[in-house]
């Protein structure tokens, strides 16, 4: 009875692991599409940003743009939290900032192209954080899918066949003992009658 119970639990465990794997794969595939979309957006914004930076370098001079670049502060407001999807810790990254873009340089010696470059690189920064979150999530999901697949394969290929064999062996042994007992009883009955 214990072997049969373990067999049933192993089969249920395999079914649950298989469902979990399928859910994680579907989640990962949707995230891959999202990552591709973010990457194409980054490429477009980078293109605009570099063209604007080139024009700012030409119109203002490289040394002026470089000096203004020193006025731009380093980003240190990235928040990292975690959430769980089917037991997988997924990062949530966010840059804490106000709705308006804060400009850290004077408008006195600048022009439209520098402002466009600044705004575009700021968008790239936000998109890069989002892409890092999505790619890290994809990596963690892929790793967990691999582990789940190994566990499911171990159940399917090793544990379940072992318990099936054990249940069959015990059942055959019990049936054999029943037949022996039946034969013994039949012989005893014939001796008692004879």
In short:
The chain has 194 residues and is mostly helical. It is built from 3 helices and 2 strands. It has helices at residues 2-60, 62-71, 112-193, and strands spanning 78-85, 88-95.
Largest sheet: 2 strands, antiparallel
Write the H/E string, N to C.
HHEEH
Note the gap between the termini: 40 Å
CATH architectural name: Orthogonal Bundle
Radius of gyration, taken over Cα atoms and rounded to an integer in Å: 34 Å
- In DSSP terms (H or I, runs of 4 or more residues), the helix count works out at 3
Task: Explain this structure.
The protein is mainly alpha-helical and 194 residues long. It has one domain (2-190): Helix Hairpins (Orthogonal Bundle). The protein is 78% helix and 8% strand. It has three helices and two strands. The chain has helices at residues 2-60, 62-71, 112-193; strands at 78-85, 88-95. It has a two-stranded antiparallel sheet with strand order 1-2. A hairpin with a 2-residue loop joins strand 1 (78-85) and strand 2 (88-95). The longest helix is centred in the C-terminal third of the chain and has 82 residues, at 112-193. The two termini are 40 Å apart.
How are the secondary structure elements laid out?
Elements (H helix, E strand, L loop, with lengths): L1 H59 L1 H10 L6 E8 L2 E8 L16 H82 L1
Antiparallel strand pairs: 1-2
Helix pairs in contact: 1-2, 1-3
